[in-house]
């Protein structure tokens, strides 16, 4: 197995982790997605240090992966936004309850 094959396997694993956490609502899941995205970027950059003849067989897959990068980043941002909204709703409920309790 060539170094490019190993990196491509790691890249596929990183993508699977990110896709597995789409719709994440906990900070832990969001952190996992962000870490996987950083690993993905690191693994793709590492391919640049490998001789071209090892990387060439993976050309089509790499092109597809690069096209997916924006959607992977958007999935992480959507998870963050969803978590923020949930926290805001909880804080609003707490404030409403405190306001109601203070009026009694």
Describe what this molecule looks like in 3D.
It is a single chain. By secondary structure, the protein is mainly α. It is built from 4 helices and no strands. Helix 1 packs antiparallel against helix 2. It is rod-shaped, with a radius of gyration of 20 Å. The relative contact order is 0.15. The mean pLDDT is 84.
Largest sheet: none
Query: Which structural class is indicated by helix and strand composition?
Result: mainly alpha
- Indicate the multimeric state: single chain
Contiguous helical run count: 4
Per DSSP E runs of 2 or more residues, the count of β-strands stands at 0
Q: What are the segments in which pLDDT stays under 50 over at least 5 consecutive residues? A: none
Helix content: over 70%
Instruction: Note the beta-strand portion.
Output: under 5%
User: Given the C-alpha coordinates, what overall shape results?
Assistant: rod-shaped
Q: Tell me the span between the first and last alpha carbons.
A: 72 Å
Integer average pLDDT: 84
């Amino acid at each position: 197995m060539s170094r490019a094959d190993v990196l491509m396997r790691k890249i596929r694993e990183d993508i699977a982790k990110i896709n597995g956490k789409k719709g994440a609502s906990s900070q832990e899941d969001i952190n996992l997605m962000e870490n996987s995205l950083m690993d993905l970027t690191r693994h793709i950059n590492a391919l640049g240090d490998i001789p071209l003849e090892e990387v060439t067989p993976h050309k089509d897959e790499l092109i597809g992966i690069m096209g997916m990068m924006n959607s992977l980043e958007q999935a992480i941002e959507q998870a963050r936004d969803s978590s923020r909204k949930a926290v805001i709703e909880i804080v609003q409920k707490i404030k409403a309850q405190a306001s109601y309790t203070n009026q009694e």
